[in-house]
Structure formats: structure tokens, C-alpha cells
Amino acid sequence: xxxxxxxxxxxxxxxxxxxxxxxxxxxxxxxxxxxxxxxxxxxxxxxxxxxxxxxxxxxxxxxxxxxxxxxxxxxxxxxxxxxxxxxxxxxxxxxxxxxxxxxxxxxxxxxxxxxxxxxxxxxxxxxxxxxxxxxxxxxxxxxxxxxxxxxxxxxxxxxxxxxxxxxxxxxxxxxxxxxxxxxxxxxxxxxxxxxxxxxxxxxxxxxxxxxxxxxxxxxxxxxxxxxxxxxxxxxxxxxxxxxxxxxxxxxxxxxxxxxxxxxxxxxxxxxxxxxxxxxxxxxxxxxxxxxxxxxxxxxxxxxxxxxxxxxxxxxxxxxxxxxxxxxxxxxxxxxxxxxxxxxxxxxxx
Length: 349
Hints:
Blueprint: H1 10-23, E1 28-31, H2 35-38, E2 49-52, H3 79-91, E3 97-101, H4 103-114, E4 119-123, H5 139-160, E5 163-168, H6 175-184, E6 188-190, H7 198-210, E7 216-221, H8 232-238, H9 252-263, E8 267-271, H10 283-301, E9 307-312, E10 315-320, H11 333-343
Parallel strand pairs: 3-4, 4-9, 5-7, 5-8, 6-7
Antiparallel strand pairs: 1-2, 9-10
């Protein structure tokens, strides 16, 4: 099953699970819409699950999204729903479950494992926010998609001689923003893990202009406001042009507007949004998904459950589901520092 937000490479992981299982003389059921399928909520059982064969996963490795479809299931936090899922799985003769998704998916998998159903977690999330693994399935594709989009925005920013503040996904993890900013030669980046202020960003835009830059790219992680240190209400009250801005729920467009007023340089906002979750998975994501999906089956074959597979140092690893978020998934400060070095956005020495 695939659960939570979709990620490019999920289909490749499903394919690897199915074909590795068949090779090991195991049959496979694919549950649809994540834990909703396991709870069998549809009027027709064929809309909840299906038998998967080698042919079921043909022509799937290069396709984005997930053909099993995906959804969130908040009811699954309730122990009674978890017990109902176990009932359904046993009724079908299911002896193990591969759960492809992120942190929420893993919590559901851990609950089922505690109730006696062996589960293996496979990290499918573009956010790359699971601490135990270097990379998650979908991250590389999302990074490449964001880079392609920013390259296009850069060209129009050059034409109009403006700064562009571009919001990328990642929720509470700044990995997409950091890696995208570095790969695209962005001048600045704001992420939830590293403190920043609007005044500092505006000052750097101003000094960039004085150094001869006419256009600039600022990459903004969607969760970056949680590490913002400025008194935005005070800034807006002191600038008549910003008096209309409500500071209760600031948008990226409003952040861009504040930067423009403080820096004196035209600044526009662009939100890339769900485009980052779609598209054909990169070669790297297809390989990672296939390796992790195959390893998940091998673990279940060997009667091991309650584990999450991942990659560390190009090696496939497995850790207990209870430890997937142990240790901080900190921002790569080396990349953050290199972005500043390459951008040359500071005052003259």
C-alpha cells in the first residue's frame, strides 16, 4: 500500500515488491488509498484491494504518482480502527504488509506491527524528512523538477530585472529548498532549520543590486516562517506601504512585498506547489525505490517485521520503526554556507 502524499518512484517500489515476492513464491495484494483500503471502506471490495501479478506492474517503473492511489486516514490513529484493519488482513490471509510513505504511514505500520501483523516501511516522500535515511523516494525527482522550474523563472527575472521569491515544498524540512537553491545558483535560501530575518534578506538584495545584480533568485521553503526572527508587525507599522498587510497568516507574496519595500528592488513571488510531486521519477529515484522495495520483501520472507528500510552511504539499511525519527534531520549547513559564498551578496569588504 501507498499512503500519505504521493511521491515519484512509488510505482517503482510497488513493482519491486510484487516481482520480488513472486520470485520468492509469495502472492501479493495491493491495497488502494492507503489505510482506507485496509479498512475496506468502499461499497465494492474491488475498489479496496486487488491481487497483483507480474503483469499488474508492467509499464509502471517510469510513471509518477501511484497506481494504487493514496490518501490520508486520520481514523487510523484510533486503536479500534487499527484492530479492524488487523481483522481484515487476517481474513484475507495477509501475513505481512509493505507500507510505502512518510512519517504518518510509519506510525500506522508500527501500530499494526504491535498488533501482530509484520510490517516493513519504505520511505516514499518528496520531503526527505525521515532522519534515519539519507534519501527518500521522490526527493531527487522533486529537486530536479524544482530546478527546471526555477531555471525558467530565472530567465523572466533577468528580463524584468527583479528578484523572485520561489516557494518550494518540504513541509517542516528544508532539504528541497537547500538543494534546489544550491543546484540553481540561487542568491538566498530560507529554511525552517536555520534562523533568518526579513531585514537581513532585504539588506542582501540591496547589496546585490549595488554589486551589479539586476535579478536574483530567493528560494523559500514552505515551512520557513517558523524560523523567521523579525518583528513583522513592527516592520509593517513603520512603513506606510505595508500597512495593509495582516501579519496573522503571512503568505509568500506578502513576504516578497515586504522585501521589495525594504530593499527598494522589485520582488515577486512564485509558488511551485504540487507540480513538484508529479512527473516521471528520475533514474536515481527508480533505482532507490526498486532496491528498497526488494529489500522489504526479503525481510518479510525472513519473518522480520517492525522495520523501515532506507539508504545510508549508498548502502541499504533497516532500522526499527520506533527509531525512524531518532536523531535530528538537521539542515546541511555546509550547503547553506556554500550558497552564501557563491552568491556574493554581502557588503564590500
